[in-house]
Design brief:
Layout (H helix, E strand, L loop, with lengths): L1 E11 L2 E12 L5 E5 L6 H8 L7 E6 L2 E2 L5 H10 L1 E4 L11 H11 L4 H14 L15 H13 L5 E5 L7 H16 L3 E5 L3 H4 L4 E6 L2 E5 L1
Parallel strand pairs: 3-8, 3-9, 6-7, 7-8
Antiparallel strand pairs: 1-2, 1-4, 4-5, 9-10
């Protein structure tokens, strides 16, 4: 993934307000990148660009060398469904589905073979340490367990990049650490991860930290 002089400008009455102001960023395969900065600095807008959820006002966002602005809507939908996994602060699990049914849902939407759905969901439950919780509903799980189910669901279609927006924001320290241990293991196995966080300790799990302010990248560590 590469961003070349990316701007995102919103029209507010008579004024143009830049959410992103000339972003240049390269995310290499198998990197673990954390994006940090104060509220309103453009972190979520940048993650939406990386996730093909939004288009730049000007500049280029390249996915595997192709400009995402050139993709048709059905191509973008396929990319978001299969190549990119999304994890949110609020888990976004379906309350009427069990843990394993939540994990299986993206595969069913994309019409994976039933045997693959069953096998993959069981393996993912085991990977996030919830083999015994597959038939539990979200309300029967702790916050940390729900987020681990969300991680497994995001991985179900075999994405090449995982995007996480404040994945530990609603978790206590212990649960957040458990989720980040899963992230670290996934990255060690070769998965590319881009994560937004305001917590320096959580950012410390990443291999690279990109710091933003006022729609610009102001530093990296």
């Amino acid at each position: 993934m590469e961003m070349q002089d990316v701007w995102k400008i919103y029209r507010m009455g008579d004024f143009d307000v830049p959410a992103l102001a000339g972003i240049d960023l390269v995310i290499k395969k198998s990197e673990f990148v954390a994006i940090t900065g104060p509220s309103g600095c453009g972190k979520s807008t940048m993650l939406n660009m990386i996730g093909c959820l939004d288009m730049p006002t000007r500049g280029k966002v390249l996915l595997e060398g192709r400009n995402i602005s050139e993709f048709k809507s059905d191509e973008l939908a396929r990319i978001r469904g299969k190549k990119i996994g999304f994890i949110f602060q609020t888990f976004n699990l379906y309350p009427t589905l069990t843990a394993i049914a939540n994990i299986q849902l993206p595969m069913r939407i994309h019409e994976f073979p039933e045997v693959e759905i069953e096998n993959t969901s069981r393996k993912l439950l085991e990977m996030v340490g919830l083999s015994e919780r597959g038939n539990h509903f979200p309300a029967q799980l702790s916050g940390g367990q729900q987020q681990r189910v969300a991680v497994a669901r995001a991985l179900s279609t075999g994405p090449s990049i995982l995007l996480a927006d404040e994945p530990t924001g609603n978790l206590d320290t212990k649960s957040g650490g458990e989720v980040m241990d899963v992230f670290k293991r996934l990255n060690t196995e070769g998965l590319t991860i881009v994560m937004i966080t305001h917590d320096p300790k959580i950012a410390g799990y990443a291999g690279r930290v990109v710091k933003m302010l006022d729609g610009k990248i102001v530093g990296e560590t």
